[in-house]
Amino acid sequence: MREPYREILVVDLLGGIGDLVMLLPAVHGLALRNPGASLRVLTHEPGAALLRGDPAVARVLTPRHGGPGAEREAVAEALAARRPDLAITTTRYDGIPDLLAASGARCVTDLWRRPPPDEPVGERYLRLLVAEGLLRPEDALARPAVRLTPAEIAYGESTLARRVPAATPAGTARPPVVLITDAGMDVKRWPAGRWRELATLLARRGHPLLTPDAPPKHAGAAHAAFGPEVAVLPRCGLRGLAACFAAVARRGGVVVGGDTGPLRVAAAAGAATVGLFGPTWARRYGIGASSGPGDAVDLQGRPGCPHRRPTAITEQPCWWTAECPLSAAGAACMTDIGVSSVARAVTRLSAASPARHPADDA
Fold this sequence. Notes:
Layout: E1 7-12, H1 17-33, E2 38-43, E3 59-61, H2 70-81, E4 86-89, H3 96-101, E5 106-108, H4 121-131, H5 150-163, E6 177-180, H6 192-204, E7 209-212, E8 230-233, H7 237-250, E9 254-258, H8 261-268, E10 272-277, H9 282-285, E11 296-300, H10 332-335, H11 339-352
Parallel strand pairs: 1-2, 1-4, 2-3, 4-5, 6-7, 6-9, 7-8, 9-10, 10-11
Helix pairs in contact: 1-4, 1-8, 5-7, 6-11, 7-8
């Protein structure tokens, strides 16, 4: 049996919140298999907040600026501050793998190698680390988890309580549903009219509805057009939002959104999710593909799109431009997802996910 590594550096500078969430099981697995190690994670804001306060992580590092070369500089600074004996990275650009290898540490620098089109990304990371002898086979079953403090859990409960009425004595209140309308990229957005139609339908069925607040530049998104039946969660940072999602989970609620970081945060906080997948392939990037039974439904729009590249999504013609080769009216894959399909998924998950209470997690 090898000796545990003492200094571990994990580098995830892909830029997306969801990218970091998919790596969380690897971070937690490395901490578990190397007890007492000083494990540092170098990543971007705002996702870095998810690891602050995580007992598995000794320190969270971020680039000092947003200019060219910032990520490479941050890696060099991390190596100069403390030389790791194990370095793991998802980041392949700007010579970062070579920089890590030159440190003399044991390195795993290509967690993207030879990916099958139907293997979830997070599971791929874990299986490669198992193959490297850094994790055990049982670690490959781990799911992303945001580790919240008792104070954060209490904040989520009180925030939700102020916006969603408590259940009636007869217990007839429907579980809450959170609608995440923004997706970070135009090509991943579900049409605003569909969101409004879904909100109307779910409100009629008795579901309390919520949506996260958005920064001013996104305030014109679909949720701004919701009626008073949709309560707005406060702008509270990623950990505060995760705490609100955890409170929704304890009421048996569901979170609906596109392929976006906050939806992955919701799943990592324990909430059931309905994911709306268009340009990204749900069998590779979906939440339900790697979650437990009944926890998530991933709806794939236009599964037969000839332009989709499951293992090279950034090379699709629509990815950066949001110009769909199949439709001048917007992403055909996103408009292919119907309101009725989403509503059915919400009903199924809320029926299969009975309300849980804080005591259940003790």
